[in-house]
Amino acid sequence: MDSIRVTGGNPLSGRVKAHGAKNAVLKHMVAMLLAPGHYRLDNVPGILDVDIMGEVLDHVGARCARQGTVVEVDVPELLNPEAPLELVRKMRASILILGALLARVGSARVALPGGDDFGSRPIGMHLDGLEQMGAKFELRHGVLEASAPNGLRGTEVFLEFPSVGATENLLLAAVLAKGRSVIGNAAREPELADLASFLNAMGAKVDGAGTSTIEVMGVTSLGPADHTVVADRLEAGTYALAAAATGGDITVEGCDPNFLRMELRKMEAAGCSVERGEDWFSVVGPERPEPLDIATLPFPGFHTDMHPQMVSFLTRAIGTSIVTENVYAARFRYIGELNRMGADIHADGQHVVVRGVDGLSGCEVDGCDIRAAAALTIAGLSADGQTIVREAEHIDRGYDNFVETLHSLGADIDR
Ligand code: UD1
């Protein structure tokens, strides 16, 4: 198992360019299953999750080849419409092949994902919506068997909660369904708008993605397309917080600051100076942050995937912050690790109370998940002495060249 070793104390300074978004590219790869042919994706991040999605596509019968930031995929006429448990366990986003395969093949077999560190993470909204479009589901021996005996038909679905995955699954199904679909209370994430623009390039008729009402006119067939993946706002925001936590300054290029509107606003409230351009922003961190009150919410609210990194930044605030987690039932494993470094954090239900301390001291901590590992690295950057973040492979799932990038900004860090 790999670890990241970081010695705190160096203020980070310099420029980084955001890679393509993990949470967009994985969906684009699934969307390719909607039509046979040759596809090319550009600005693909060098992360493990892209390889895992490549394995899912391979299993379904497509062939993926990655070279640098380009992924080329050949999708055949005939598909093997299933995702086995070992792949779904590795990556929950595999569940999105349900909508695409139901639309293209009329059936799918997907192992049902269990819970994880974020809570039980059900997929009821995905299934309800697809059922309203004519799909039928049966759970046999832990595998969800889906079929659409009479094809999928367009319909109006109103989501209980703007779930990103449910919106995407329904969108992928609706583009080839018969007639008009409306997804109400849809997720508004920029990655979803990027998926819709890729689908439209494939010949789909999707309107309103990026707003809470998405309208789709089903078409009878789609064709392959090329696409450049939108910037990873979570990667951009993580580097911004890393620099801020060290009292440093950073310019992040290639990412629209509006994708991080709430996160940058909160950083300003904590005492950071922020400058915004069309596709760049810069952040100068304070000596110590002011405390904050934050609630995670679907976009354009504060992103739950920025919560651990923000808490890490707030550990050294002059006062007490409260971060309320509204998206996941549990996302708190990183807290014990930060407390081992001298932080004073207490979780009470959905609320995380962060009492600022004068400083952290480095030690050995467990990475837990992608954002937790990033948060613990951020803590290590400002801590006294050496921090070892174990289970560093979590970082590889979501960050392209994380250690190298922080090193280039002046961090004393290696793998
Ligand atoms: C996506 C992102 C993830 C991010 C999350 C929220 C990818 C690969 N992952 O995950 O990084 O943290 O959005 O921005 O893009 N829920 C239900 N029933 C459902 C569906 C969801 O109760 O049918 C709940 C989930 O358990 C969770 C919440 O809704 O508590 C949000 O989930 P959702 O927006 O669907 O997240 P994902 O698409 O899984």
Task: Describe this structure as you would to a colleague.
The structure is a single chain. With 415 residues, the protein is of the alpha/beta class. It is 32% helix and 26% strand. It has two domains: 201 residues, Enolpyruvate transferase domain (UDP-n-acetylglucosamine1-carboxyvinyl-transferase, Chain, Alpha-beta prism); 207 residues, Enolpyruvate transferase domain (UDP-n-acetylglucosamine1-carboxyvinyl-transferase, Chain). Strand 16 and strand 17 form a beta hairpin. The radius of gyration is 21 Å and the shape is elongated. The mean pLDDT is 96. Bound molecules: uridine-diphosphate-N-acetylglucosamine. Uridine-diphosphate-N-acetylglucosamine binds next to helix 1, helix 5 and helix 6.
